[in-house]
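> Could you send the TrmB family transcriptional regulator prediction when you get a chance?

Sure thing. Input:
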Amino acid sequence: MRDVLEHLRRLGMPGYEAKAYVALVAAGRPVNGYEVAKRSGVPRSTVYETLGKLVARGAAYEVRGSSDATEYLPLPPESLLDRMRREFDGSVAALRTALPAVAAAPEAPPIHGLKDAEAMLDRAGDVVAAARRDLFVSIWPAEMRRLRGPVEEAAGRGVDVSVVAFGEDAGPAAGARVHRHRYSAPEAVLEDLGYRLIVVVGDRREAVVGGFAEGAAWGIYTADPAVALMAAEYVRQDIVLQILADRVGAAELDRLFATDPDLLRLLGRR
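Output:
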């Protein structure tokens, strides 16, 4: 019951109105205000005002009882939910146009810190959900379990999704191009970095970058297109390296990294 009342409240039906509506639905027959108060816990002093508000919003109807007293019937739940959905969708559609029109242009692209795993994965989910053109993801199994659904939804709506997956459990994701990170081995990467890195970039315009280690998590969200482009390129280059390792073999890449002077310089092994 608490869940029902909470969801009704979230959809714009205040507490007393939600309690009265649920009482009407549970009654299964026309009932008067006194019985609604008794069933719902709405104070008798406010129950008729509350029922009036339900009638005004079309969630309940007044009927005449056998004693000519006013009784109330609920709008059927299916009809109420359909109406709420239409109203909600209509408001969202209107705000998509109205809010950008009144928003001031930011002085600089937004960037903010993310100080725990929940905040970081929620923000990464926002980036995935907003992607319309392409999505680049570098991720480990623990984080992929949380984001697999949104990533698959993005692929399903036509987003070009590229994933670098560390570990066998990090993939697959239906509709996405998943490249397993075998060069270097995931355990070697984890030992070298000391934490699991996550990179999520949507449309090369916003990104979440962060790390997870021993119960701690930290990172940033940014809509700076330059930073987002750099993060996307990081994932793209890692994908290229995995493809090369598959095509020419890890041994040949090891030989190049050990002998080529330019690669040695970049790797700091001179």
